[in-house]
Amino acid sequence: MGCCTGRCTLIFICTLQMLVALERQIFDFLGYQWAPILGNFLHIIVVILGLFGTIQYRPRYIVAYTIWTAFWVAWNVFIICFYLEVGGLSKDTDLMTFNISIHRSWWREHGPGCVWRLVPAPPSKNLGDHSFISVTGCIIEFQYIEVIHSAVQILLSLIGFVYACYVISVITDEEDSCRHK
């Protein structure tokens, strides 16, 4: 097989997906975003499974990866809708932390150019041990950074889906041709 086969391309796409998911996982951990952490963890496992299936010529594993990419695209579309507040969703809810904490996206306070300062909490808000933080001067708002992360994940997943279907087709055709000899 040549270097630029569909199989090699799928290996490259899966590796790139894993790197992007690991980067996203780190920032979700920093922001205590438990729902995305769980999703990223499952995604990394399935991408490893897809890599293994591609390297070892196991079409069933690649099929599992292909099915997962459909769920992964749907999850990332949900994330985009969540941060852009589409359909009654609100980025100010605790949905991403399973309603167990008031943490938000790490990018909310640490985005490019953001300057944050502690301010006294209004008496009407009971924040417990948490501080009230004012963030100003961000070059790009945190929700757009999250949307960009999800859009990159969707793009890689769609490309991975196409190449996975192609590789499955090639592998099964090779198996069929070997059986008929």
Shape: elongated
Low-confidence stretches: none
Following the backbone from N to C, one meets helices and strands in this order, namely HHHHEEH
Largest sheet, described in full?
Answer: 2 strands, antiparallel
Radius of gyration: 21 Å
Helix count from the secondary structure assignment: 5
Distance between the termini: 20 Å
Please state roughly what percent of the residues sit in beta strands, choosing from under 5%, 5-15%, 15-25%, 25-35%, 35-45% or over 45%.
Answer: 5-15%
Instruction: List the strand order in the largest sheet.
Output: 1-2
Counting helices, strands and paired strands, the structural category is: mainly alpha
Number of strands: 2
Describe this structure in words.
It contains 5 helices and 2 strands. Helices cover 63% and strands 6% of the residues. A two-stranded antiparallel sheet has the order 1-2. The protein has a domain at 6-90 and 143-179. It has helices at residues 6-30, 34-55, 59-83, 107-110, 142-179; strands at residues 115-119, 132-136. The mean pLDDT is 84. The protein is mainly α. The chain crosses the membrane at residues 5-22, 35-55, 62-82, 151-171.
Question: Can you lay out the helices and strands and say which pair or pack?
Answer:
Layout: H1 6-30, H2 34-55, H3 59-83, H4 107-110, E1 115-119, E2 132-136, H5 142-179
Antiparallel strand pairs: 1-2
Subcellular location: Cell membrane
Membrane topology: Multi-pass membrane protein
Transmembrane segments: 5-22, 35-55, 62-82, 151-171
